[in-house]
Design brief:
With 59 residues, this protein is of the alpha+beta class. The protein has 1 helix and 2 strands. The N and C termini lie far apart (40 Å).
């Protein structure tokens, strides 16, 4: 998977996007790319799932 590191400049007053530029492009393994997202959302999902089961009385 090819990914890019992008720099964006915003106007502090209006929040308008003023410019973007690609700083670097590199090849990354999909597992390496998605790992942080899965760790954060996966843990939150499992915690929420566990809490729902406990509320319903199913353990």
């Amino acid at each position: 998977m090819e990914v890019s590191l992008v720099s964006a400049t915003y106007c502090r007053k209006t929040g308008e996007l003023l410019s973007t530029r690609i700083i670097e492009t590199q090849e990354v393994d999909e597992d390496e790319f998605y790992r942080p997202l899965i760790e954060v959302l996966g843990d939150a999902f499992l915690e929420q799932y566990k809490n729902q089961k406990e509320k319903k009385g199913v353990v």
